[in-house]
Predict the 3D structure of the following.
Amino acid sequence: MKSILKHHLVYTNIAIFYLIVSFLTRIILLFHPITQSKFSGIEILKIFGFGILSDLFIFVFVGAILWLFLLFLSNSKFKKPYGYIILSVFVIILLYILSGKSILSEYGGVVPEIGITFVSLKTIFFAALLFTEKYRKQIRIALFSLTIFLFVLLIIQNAVSEFFFWNEFGVRYNFIAVDYLVYTNAVIGNIMESHPVVPLFASVGILSFAATYIIIKKSKSFLEDLPNFSNKLKIIVVQTLLFGSALLILPIITSQ
């Protein structure tokens, strides 16, 4: 039970951070000069009430990547021959993406580069954990910190992007945002020309590092007592129930 609580402590800390950022973003957009609509007190309560619930269940979807990462943290996978088999799989996946014929290449833009970077890092870190048992704890902390940082960076970057999207179109993400993902290079070029990119990215980086430091400080104890197989099965049950609840409830909330 202790390991399960520690697992969900990491997950909960990231979720709380996401809800805080989303709450602040909603306030900023509500009082943005471009927002012309006027809302009554009841409507504002409804906006924030359903908004928090919506954000919570959205995080359940996105956070599935995080809890899967935490779920696969273990020492047993580095025992022979499992460690060598897993490393071989990572290498094969990396070669597949590098071939330029993977499913990621069909999306174009920066998607293949993101895939290559992610799988390369996973391969390098796994190899380091496999072959340097003496430094496994330090490397695992580094990998854990990097993962948390990427999640925090994504949350903050998403909020900043949503602000500029609202500033440009007066609405939250819609089909136009999908076009932005398809034509990534053109969009990045426009951003570079229209906004103070260096101060903006520097601010995002500083905020991300600060938030990551706080979250890791509160969550690092999880690494000291990784859940065993039995506890991981219980974790899977809990997360599956959360995921199923999100599938059922989120469409109802978003339709309000």
About this structure: Residues 2-74+132-254 form one domain. Residues 19 and 55 are 6 Å apart (CA to CA). The two ends are 37 Å apart (CA to CA). The chain has a mean pLDDT of 79.
